[in-house]
Amino acid sequence: MILDTQYLGALVDGNEAARVKAEELDETDVPTRIPTVVLWEAYTGIGNTTSEAVGGQLRELYERLQRSRSTVDLTPTVARKAGSLNGKHLQSDALSDLDGADSVIAAHGLLREEPVVSNDADFQDVEGLTVVTY
């Protein structure tokens, strides 16, 4: 399973449904992975906090989540797939807006044939991608 930024943010925020989904995932043998672009998005948010104390708390929570999961890197293959997805969605009037980071996350899911865990509706329009919501 590929874990989206939105899902990890919900875990950090103490969202009950996200916590229940985490417990369900932990009870299975299915590997959960965090794309490095998700770490970039998380640290963008941490860097944008106005309180050093809040930023430190967020950093600690995200680091704990990251240590408990494997990560997947942005490789040239993933970059090509993500760029194609992003371009297709930008060109379409019917498909959802799939920003750069989300296109990378979706590409990881497609290339690994793994679902993405997220409540972000933008993933719903990605052809062939399975999205697990909570």
Walk me through the structure:
The chain has 134 residues and is mostly helical. Helices cover 57% and strands 9% of the residues. It has 6 helices and 5 strands; from the N terminus they run βααβααβααββ. Strands 1-4-5 form a 3-stranded parallel β-sheet. α3 runs antiparallel to α4 and α5 crosses α6. The protein is globular, with a radius of gyration of 15 Å. The mean pLDDT is 93.
Judged by helices, strands and strand pairing, the structural class is mainly alpha
The radius of gyration computed from the alpha-carbon positions, rounded to a whole number of angstroms, is 15 Å
Strand count? 5
Number of helices: 6
Write down the overall geometry: globular
The succession of helices and strands, N to C, reads EHHEHHEHHEE
Helix content: 55-70%
**What fraction of residues sit in β-strands?**
5-15%
Mean pLDDT: 93
Q: Low-confidence parts lasting 5 or more residues at pLDDT below 50?
A: none
Largest sheet geometry:
3 strands, parallel
In angstroms, what separates the terminal alpha carbons? 13 Å
Strand order of the largest sheet: 1-4-5
